[in-house]
Amino acid sequence: MATWHVGPFDNDDAADWCDSLHEAPAAERREIVWRALEVAALARSDVTAADAARAVAAAAVVLHSLTGAPQPNSPHMPSLSFCGDAIEVDDALLALAVQAIDAVLAQTSGWRRQWADDVEEDEALTIVGELRTRLTDTRS
Fold first, then answer.
1. Angle between helix 49-67 and helix 121-139 axes, rounded to 10 deg
2. Distance between CA atoms of residues 79 and 73, nearest Å
3. What pTM does this model have?
4. pLDDT digits (tens, 9 = 90+) for 98-122
5. What is the mean pLDDT of the chain?
6. CA atoms within a 13 Å half-sphere pointing along the CA-CB vector of 35
7. DSSP letters for 22-49
8. Domain boundary assignment for the chain
9. Name one Pfam family in it (predicted).
């Protein structure tokens, strides 16, 4: 996976996933988000870097759909979130997003191994950790 920066959309896998989400009919987008999160959640600590990247992007879309909070300034953020075409989020999707982020943050995940000893490791962990916190806070 080519990574350009530490944001949820700043890598090849997330950008490709976002393109697919953006191009999909509105009625199919929630399922695309669900699948990306489910793959990571089911893999748990064995989630690959590519699946983790897609899950982080999907979790960021979930957060934006819930809160309307601005996303990181990335040209790869799916524009559908900014044009009123957000994903419908229920408790199950929100819980799945948190589970997926937990898998991404696990010590043995492919995503964590990819960032190990990188100069931006702490920043990447902080961004994904904050995403998890914000998702959890919306559940309260």
1. 40
2. 12
3. 0.88
4. 999 999 999 999 888 888 877 778 8
5. 85
6. 8
7. HHS-HHHHHHHHHHHHHHHHHHGGG--H
8. 12-139
9. DUF4259
